[in-house]
Design a protein that fits this description.
The chain is an alpha+beta fold and 83 residues long. Helix content is 30%, strand content 16%. Strand 1 and strand 2 form a beta hairpin. The longest helix has 25 residues. It is elongated.
Length: 83
């Protein structure tokens, strides 16, 4: 639940709202998640294949560290043999 303090003008019109920093940070996280969901839904509607650009590094079956960033072998047209 949001708890806000309102800043008003001389006529009593609300000009701004002040909320605790934790509530503000929570709202930002929720908005980011909503933006990600909307982007996913739009891509799915266009039948685009998702690109895992922000995935953390992982190790393949041979124990070799791989990254899924744009400069990784995942996006390279000629990946290293045997990987």
């Amino acid at each position: 639940m949001l708890s806000a303090t309102f800043i008003i003008d001389s006529n009593g019109k609300k000009l701004s709202a002040v909320i605790p920093i934790r509530q503000y940070q929570h709202l930002l996280e929720e908005l980011k998640e909503l933006d990600d969901i909307r982007a996913y839904d739009e891509a799915k509607a266009r039948k685009e294949k998702p690109i895992p650009s922000a995935m953390p590094s992982e190790k393949d079956a041979k124990g070799i560290s791989i990254s899924f960033g744009q400069n990784s072998r995942f996006f390279n047209k000629n990946p290293a043999p045997g990987l």
